[in-house]
Amino acid sequence: MSQTEQKSIVVLISGQGSNMQAIVRAARERQWDKRWGARVVGVVSNRPESAGLLWAREQGLATAAVDHKAYDGREVFDAALMQAVDGLAPNKWPDLVVLAGFMRILTPGFVAHYAGRLVNIHPSLLPAFPGLHTHRRAIEAGCRFAGATVHRVTAELDHGEYLEQAVVPVLPDDTADSLAARVLTQEHLIYPRAIERLLAGL
Fold this sequence. Notes:
By secondary structure, this protein is of the alpha/beta class. It has helices at 18-29, 32-36, 51-58, 74-88, 108-113, 134-140, 176-201; strands spanning 7-13, 38-45, 62-65, 96-99, 118-122, 145-152, 162-169. α6 crosses α7 (176-201).
């Protein structure tokens, strides 16, 4: 397969990048390159010191750091972020941009630049609990179930077509941390699966 036919995936992270790691492992173990001509070509973080960048480098992946604190405003930061993302992809055009624990709200311009190619995972059963502190809010609301949602990204926070969801029980003695850990195990399963469905349609 030529480089022009190669489907490229760039992953954005802010911290450890456990979902990114699950995606990279799935891509290799399930041979996305042979099945769909797709591969993870690089990882970008807004935190230069993030552990996920180090892990990605150890896997031989290209990486870039765009420190949001170095930019005066979201639009300027997002412009630099777009340049970094596109610079990691062959032919300057990633087929998928995957947000995996990327803790920055993106501008409408960034979302428009990657329209139809931008996906995110959110730690709740959307449309319930968009935004932050989802596990604590689910417990405080008395929810019996919680979970995670993979969705397409739109300019509106935590909206967009739902691609995959996973459900876990909320246990009587759950804390936000224990519930988060249970949800995270499911995130690692559904995110690669959602990406595979997208790749099959590209």
